């Protein structure tokens, strides 16, 4: 196994674990987890994790056996769609700050968790485009973390917005 790839994987995995712990502490009601300093550290850790994930793509020792004429356009299309969905959803929420009201318009009228959909598509698309097999397979590790975040976030939104969120969940899937 390539040591650069392994280090990059550990960095990415560590950031996902840290991210999940912060969500868990928020869900449990720890005020420190909701502090600005915790979110600043979390943003830094997530950024470092995605740098690690990028290194995974370029140092992946196992390549997909697919023509560049197929892998590159298909992977870029999936990855860029994910990136656009992620940015579109962040813009709809006016960034990543906690909101005083529930966002249910725009992309949030189609999906409850478009940021997470975007992240999953990014994790699928760009490894396909670069023919990085182990990095593509790693989506099987990252996706359960994302579902954990989704679950905790939705429970928090139910507490904060009550029936408004419950009705929204009935209307809008994932």
Features:
single chain, 174 residues, mainly alpha, Four Helix Bundle (Hemerythrin (Met), subunit A), 7 helices
Please specify the SSE layout and strand pairing:
Layout: H1 3-27, H2 36-59, H3 68-92, H4 114-129, H5 133-137, H6 139-161, H7 163-171
Helix pairs in contact: 1-2, 1-6, 3-4, 4-6, 6-7
CATH class: Mainly Alpha
Number of domains: 1
* CATH fold title: Four Helix Bundle (Hemerythrin (Met), subunit A)
Beta percentage is under 5%
Q: Please report the number of helical segments.
A: 7
Span of the ends, CA to CA: 36 Å
Helix fraction bin: over 70%
**From the coordinates shown, what is the CATH architecture?**
Up-down Bundle
What would you say about this model in short?
The chain is mostly helical. The chain is built from seven helices and no strands. It has a single domain (about 5-170), classed as Four Helix Bundle (Hemerythrin (Met), subunit A), CATH 1.20.120.
Structure, explained:
The chain is mainly α and about 170 residues long. The protein has a single domain, classed as Four Helix Bundle (Hemerythrin (Met), subunit A) (Up-down Bundle). The chain is about 75% helix and about 0% strand. It is built from seven helices and no strands. The protein has helices at about 5-25, 35-60, 70-90, 115-130, 135, 140-160, 165-170. The chain is globular and about 50 Å long. It starts with a helix and ends with a helix.
